Amino acid sequence: MFCSHKRRRKIRTKDSISYPIPSNHTPELPPENDAPLCSTCSSLDLHAILHDGVPKEHAIPIGHLTDILNKSNQCGLCNLVAIVIRRAWNLDKLPDIDISDITCALYAMECGYPNIPDYISPVLRDICHRLHIQTFDRPRDVTAAMVAAQSNLLLDIQLLGEDASKLGGRKNFMAGGLVRIDGSTSVNTSMVRAPPSCRFVALSYLWGGTGEEYWTTRANIKQRRAQGGLDVSVLPSTILDTIQLVRQLGERYLWIDALCIVQDDPKDKAVQIGVMELIYGTSAFTIFAAGGTSAHDPLPGIRPGTRDPKQQITKIQGLHLAVPLILPREAIASSAWDTRGWTYQELMLSRRRIFLTPHHVHFECGEDIWSEDVIAERINLPWASHPLKYGGAGGFTSVRAPPEWNSSTYMGHYMSIIGKYTQRRLTMESDILNAVTALINAMAKGFKLAGGNPGQAFRFGMPIVDLELALVWQPTSNTSCVRRATGDGNMTLWPSWSWAAWRGAVQYSEVSLFVDAQNGGVSPWITQSLVEQWHV
After folding, report:
1. Where would I find the Heterokaryon incompatibility domain in this sequence (predicted)?
2. 158 vs 130, 312, 374, 425, 533, CA distance in Å?
3. Which position has the higher pLDDT, 175 or 309?
């Protein structure tokens, strides 16, 4: 366990789950003069549209997309619409897309507490509307690219929180978490054994190759356990910045694999890999360094000059309107961090997460999501009305036993995990099982498989209890069927019936693919296996 010998500061948190997050992203407001508008946009009453709302079926036409793009240099609102569509549709990389027949319109959807009856509480009726762009038709290639990038399919323009009162809204509106982190990285540090029940933070990051110069080894472990024995001058930028962030958040203990695992001790490695679900599953929160390609890259936003977020803001009819930052999930999907095998289980097992990307910082847990985006909507939103409900990384893994009625659903969860995990890359292919061991352990313990014993519940990454279901994996299209070596020096091959024995991504296709639904067929369901017990 990595320890910072510094007095802990008490941090006020939201519902004991949210944490201050770093940001040097303060949107620069445009000059006080309103932007010029074209004849079409000048006829719009944005105050009325955002205050009263406009149903999607009554969207207000604003012209052909090609005309809007051509007018973007002369009209402030056309410019915002053009930026949103050009970015979301990736038009700069799809120059041959035909958009000549596409027309656009504006509508305003309720956000916050929509459709609350008067008799419940008049306060809750104090809602906001978000401006949306409707396009009539969308090229198929554009849709495919947006889905692949996990972009927001809804095109919107946001009102800054400071202008909420201009529409009659109260002051208690969400205006983004803007907390600047300053301070020195010099801190008295050492390696310590974790005290019982101590609160600690974990780090998920990319090694980006070997790092012998900063690893903990059998040669330096004794020195590093002495107070102040960790020489921070040898640490790469990602780890140094994480130390600074954790220190500013008032935390004392930090777990980093390169420092907390003795890298040249196979026995220590095996022990740590075997309890990884406890490390990430019980950490107070995990910091995800999703901004670079190696440990030598800085943590975006912690130090000045380590990121340069840009957000177009235009003053129109006295209101500051902004192009939204990209969704947190899109920022993550575009990162190198999201392509690596080891980081998948670190994500799935972490119950509270702080992501730092070149675009923004965001926090998420099983109950809420907070982003740096600046919007004029109420705080304490019901989850069903949360604007970022599906905008985070998601995919939380429970390490607790599910209710009895839900005890058999682990196979669907397992199939989803393997499908996503095998799409990622590993520097050492022989790590294919090690890098998912924590997730397998969590499922075995959480679902009480084989009495909660992972060694008896799984073999070669496959659940023995329901092996007949696990055996129906298949390689994805364009995947070459090449056997994977175990890396034990003897070139021993894993058994061919395990997905881990083969290189490349695999998937579990639903059996409904083979059902002729048009002729009354129904999806089959396995109620009993013909094999009472599998033996390996």
Report:
1. 200-346
2. 6, 11, 8, 37, 58
3. 309
Q: Are 124 and 100 in contact (CB under 8 A)?
A: no
Extract the tokens encoding 479.
């995947």
Q: Give the global pTM.
A: 0.82
The pLDDT-based confidence of 498 (bands split at 50, 70, 90) is: very high
Q: Cβ of 362: how many Cβ atoms within 10 Å? A: 28
Alpha carbon separation from 239 to 170, 234, 289 (Å, rounded): 42, 10, 9
Residues whose CB falls within 8 Å of the CB of residue 207, separated by 6 or more in sequence, listed in order:
258, 294, 295, 427
The alpha carbon dihedral of 83, 89, 91, 92 has a sign of: positive
From CA 86, how far away is CA 9, in angstroms rounded?
A: 45
Complete DSSP assignment for 48-68: HHHHH-B-GGGPEEEEEHHHH
- Asked whether the beta carbons of 259 and 191 are under 8 A apart, the reply is yes
β-pair type (352-356, 319-322)? unpaired
Average pLDDT, rounded, for the chain: 80
Q: What are 5-22's pLDDT values in tens digits?
A: 443 332 223 333 333 444
Give the residue ranges of DSSP H helices in 227-323.
237-248, 257-260, 266-274, 276-282
Question: In angstroms, rounded to a whole number, what is the distance separating the alpha carbons of residues 118 and 281?
Answer: 43
Classified as helix, coil or strand, 136 is: strand
- Is 230 in a helix, a strand, or coil? coil
- H helices of 33-106, in order, are 39-42, 46-52, 65-70, 76-89
Between strands 285-289 and 352-356, the pairing is: parallel
Query: How much is the average pLDDT of 108-126?
Result: 52
Q: What is the pLDDT of residue 80?
A: 96
Q: What percent of the chain clears pLDDT 70, i.e. is strictly above it?
A: 75
- pLDDT tens, position by position, 60-82: 999 999 999 999 999 999 999 99
At 123, the pLDDT band (50, 70, 90 cuts) reads very low
Q: What's the CA gap between 311 and 369, in Å, rounded? A: 20
User: Which structure tokens are listed for 498?
Assistant: 């395990």
Average pLDDT (339-364) is 93
DSSP assignment of 464-482:
STTHHHHTT-EEPTT----
- Please say whether the beta carbons of 97 and 138 come within 8 A: no
Beta bridge partners of 124: none
Handedness of CA 385, 386, 390, 394 (dihedral sign): negative
The band of 150, judged by pLDDT with boundaries at 50, 70 and 90, is confident
> Which structure tokens are listed for 535?
């033996």
pLDDT for residue 367 = 79
Phi-psi region of 87 (alpha: psi -120 to 50; beta: other; left: phi over 0): alpha
Residue 231 pLDDT > 80? yes
